[in-house]
Target: TerD family protein
Amino acid sequence: MTAELVRGQNHPLDRSRVEIRIAAGVPVVAGVTLGDEQGGLPDADAVVHPGAPRRPGVEVPGRAAAVHRITVDLDALPATVHRVGVLLALAAGSGAPATFGAAPAPSVRLTAVDGTGLAGYTLTGLTAETAVVAVELYRRQGAWKVRAVGQGYADGLAALLHDQGLARAAELAAEIEAAAAPAPTREAPTREAPTREVPAPVATSAAATPPATGPVDYRHPGRRSTPAPGPTVPATAAAADGPPPPVAGDAAGWSMEERLYNQIWGMFEDLARSVAAYRSASDFAASRLAQELDEVLADPRNRLGTAADVARATARDRHATLLTRARAALDRDLAQLTAESEVVEPALPPAFARWDNPVWQGHHVPLERPMALRLGDLHLPEVLDLRIPMLVRLPLERGLWIDSGPDSLARGAEPGPEREFGRRELGSALTDGPPDAAEVRRLALEAAVAIAARLLAVHPAGEFAVQVIDPGGAAGQALAPLVETGALLGPPVPGAQGVATVLEGLVRRVDLVQMAVRSRAADALPPDLDTAEQLLIVHDFPHGFDDRAVTMLRYLADEGPAAGVHLMMVADRAQAREFGPVLDPLWRSLLRITPVPDAHLADPWVGHAWTYEPALAPKGSQVVRQVLTRLAEARRAAARTEPAGPPLPPTT
Model:
């Protein structure tokens, strides 16, 4: 939950890597000061600005704009840095007001890299100031906090920098203003430090009022309008008055993988806000039509006749015009996002890619774990053909629940465009008609195997393992790829004895790992303990589970992720009603996904209901089996060359 700060208030930070998102409403220059314990600046290198946008742990935009995104890695900052100040200054020559008092109140939001809100501050009460220190991140007793400052300076950047003890503050202020000014040509910058292009302006909320001078641009606030430093894009690549061509990895990050991850999250937010704006405009048009019709009908004398007909026709025409404009704005945004998706999808690494991506054909077992994993796709009813990858961070912090019950069947089988889209795209799983309950259970198990195979494929050989509980023995056919390639040592043992054996072994593993971590004695673990991360697939729950087994299952769901044990339930919640509310915490702790398209997930920005589609292999494809075969070969090769087991998994 985002903490809303007032001037002078501070708030602890529980993340070392944060993003600072600024929305000013008018073009401003954004920068960062890196101060010592007293807040002093030793030299010009302690100021990160558009002319020098990168320092260890900090990256700022390279131009003046109405919105900015600044990335800060607190762990990467030099040890001498104790205060990180975020400064804003009105951009000269940009048509912006002369003072902050004549401009909209700037707002600053601190978020984690995944978009989770941490703290926010709106700078109110500014009058004649032209530069301001908005917020400050400071280190106190080894921990970082954020403070809402709001200290303004009427004499601009020079006075701000001089107040912090910087010599030759006026010269640096002039250099910053020159570097942030819009470049008249595409000539190379005169400074040696690389520059960043201006982020695309966006609306600060879904229902923002468009300016009178032109349409609102709803693109993501932190997305650069040109690619990351690399080969120069020819001037003829895009029209002078149109957006530049999209580029894969066009987002902030310390690696290509992180850039793609952040770009996908940016696309996710872009689509959410664009659709929110369209829905808001549609609702406004409908309410305005109703209001105008009510006014026509309010006077009985005007309900009939030519004047009434003309008034009603005018109201409906105005309604149609508003809807047409709203749809045109949405279509413009969707065209940009679709073009970006077409560029990003082929560039995704295996962990982020669909099973039909050619990257899987040349897949090799990685040397390190990726930062995230694709669980499926998300889309909205306004645009069925644009799908956003659903990525979750690794290691998994929550277990998964693949709902094989009638709720997912009832929603997924409803007629409509989303169902038709899902049937068309998931041809490997869905038939021409709605699937029955048995088919949904089969699809749920198929989705579980696909996720397990993906997890195995993106981890180094020997550092991830899968175990299965199947008391009824009904999962044999679906588990065949795992068993035949050695990912499972054999078919799961049926009955209550098989349930107890697997759960007792994993509970023992969690207990031993927790004791070793607390005691800092990882070398004291028993030699027979497999320290690889474990995924437990539970099928046919609660068949074969007694009260003791349920207690162990709940223990693994709560304590397992921190010790490298992750839970995946393939179950119908209704079948476990006999246990009553005792299992409610278990269901709430798991991330629910469905084997058929179902609109049950919400985004963190505007709360749309997104339709989730599972990531299944194409019909007739052997890609999952091929990937598991390569993994088995790599595991055998690693066993020959490295007889020692993998290190203790990191705790969260």
